[in-house]
Structures are given as C-alpha cells and as structure tokens.
Amino acid sequence: MVIEGRVFNIMKYSIHDGPGIRTTVFLKGCPLSCWWCHNPESQEIKSELLLFPNRCISCKACIEACKQNAIKEVNGMVITSIKECVHCGECAKVCYAEARKMAGKVMTVDEVVSEILKDKDFFQQSKGGVTFSGGEPLMQPRFLIALLKEMKRLEIHTIIDTCGFASKEIMEEVSQLTDLFLYDLKQMDSIKHEKYTGVPNRMILENLELLRDLNKEVIIRIPMIPRINDSKEDLEAFRDFIKTLPNVKMVNLLPYHRIGQEKYNRLGKSYRMLEVEEPTKEAMDFSADIIRGCGINVKIGG
User: Fold this and answer.
1) What are the residue ranges spanned by the domains of the chain?
2) Is the peptide bond between 76 and the residue preceding it cis, with omega within 30 degrees of 0?
C-alpha cells in the first residue's frame, strides 16, 4: 500500500535543525495554534492558498479558473474572498506571475525519500541527517513512522522536532526510530499554555518524562516570548522541571521574532503579536542565567 502525507516544505542544507548538515522535512498540520507561530501555513493539515498581491499582473486567469467565484475584479484590482475560497489550488496553477501559491502538497514516502537521498553525501561528510519538523510531525504518525523506518534502513541519522502533543502510544513507537528529539517547551503553567497555544500542557510534559524514562536524547527548545513566558517565575519553573530530566543534553533559548508576520497577511489571517517587541540581549542573558541553574548547557539561539 502506498503511504502518503502532506508536506509543506523540504529544506536542503539546513544547519539549524540538529547536528551536521541536514535535510528538514516540514509536515503540515499542528494541534497547537501558538500566538507567535512563524509558520502559520503549517497549522492546518489541508493545503492552503498563499497570496502575494505585489506580484499580481492582473491577467485575470485566476478569475476564470476559480469554480467557486471567490475571485473578482474590483476597481481594476483582483480580489480574493478568503471566506469563499476552498483552497483547491486551481488559481495557483494558472498564475504565471506566482502571485498565488499553495502551501502543502501530498507526497508519497518514496517521493520524500528520493528528495532526501539527493543530500546523502552531505550527511556522511558532516555527521548530519534528516530532521522531521512541522507543523507537528506527530500529527501524521503513519506517514512519519514509514519515513523513519526508511531512514533507519538507509542508516541516516533522524531527528524529530516536536511540541510533544501526541498520544503516549505514538510517542513510544516514534521514539524507537528516532536518534534525537528537539522538544519545544513553551509554558509550564497549563492555564497560560492553553491560552497562548490552544491546548493544555499535561500531555506534553508527560511525553517529555516518557522520553526520560526511555533514555532518549533530547534538546529542549524554549521560545522566549516577552510578557508571556519570560518572567522570573516562568524561568524558574522551566529550570526546576528540566532538572528532573537527566536525558536532556542542551537547552536552546529561541528569541521571539516577527519574521513570519507577513505570512499571516498572505493567508488572510490576523497576527496577534503586533504589540510584542523582540527580546533584548539583556533579557535573553537574564533568562539564560536562570535556566543554567538546571546544570545543563544553555545556548541562546538554535
């Protein structure tokens, strides 16, 4: 049986998603909806239309292609109704100016593996490998597990970049095929976690403890978001929990940034972090100093 999944990007020559030179495969779909997410096109598991109005040449081919009548010419401008759009992708197929693109496409395991193998020489030379990211890769467990099995067969190092929101059964099965986990911790307080990500954090923390019990190698990543998870109380809670995890090899503190803000406009979505400034160097140093109390190497940045 052919196993398929939905992928929204395959990044070659990645040096920020684990050791060595890596190919990072981004799977679509995420159970969280973090306010600061810089890949909003990754959240929905379905394919989505991205608009680049500055590229539009008003050829109107998209209007003719749209069976939903969601695209109209208004005062000489081509306007798309996000509410009426069903993200079928027909308009993107005929947009020669690339003012319309689809985020997410269905690929088979063999197709993804074929792309990965193009970089196998780089993996061997740099002690790199493949990182499966998202979205949340654990949202497509059957597809992910099939890819991991192929990587093991080909003796390619594997990393899962995850928020940890999945069943214990999925985490256990995936852990048997994974060399290293990049594990996101966003907030220790479950009520705040649910407010800013859409889900409570109990399952996330329990799965991190499960990886400890399975003695799996983990690097924790904490996105540092001003006024959301960078108070002294927040930082001490992170520190005290990480102390209980001897399998954690490093903690990466990732400063909040607005790089993904324009993507929300392209999707017709609102960005909820307009009033939040990027953290200062002093704020990041303060955070790092507290979390270093867990006795583990703490690095600012990926």
Assistant:
1) 4-45+104-300, 48-102
2) no
Distance separating alpha carbons of residues 32 and 129, to the nearest angstrom: 27
Distance (Å, whole) CA 195 – CA 163: 16
Q: How many CB atoms lie within 10 A of CB 168?
A: 11
Inter-residue contact 47 to 103 (CB < 8 Å)? yes
pLDDT tens string 82-127: 889 999 999 999 999 999 999 999 999 999 999 999 999 999 999 9
Angle between helical axes of 141-153 and 168-175 (0-180°, round to 10): 10
CATH 3.30.70.20 corresponds to the domain 48-102: yes
d(CA 302, CA 296): 16
Give 4-45+104-300's CATH code, choosing from 3.20.20.70, 3.20.20.210, 3.40.1080.10, 3.30.390.10.
3.20.20.70
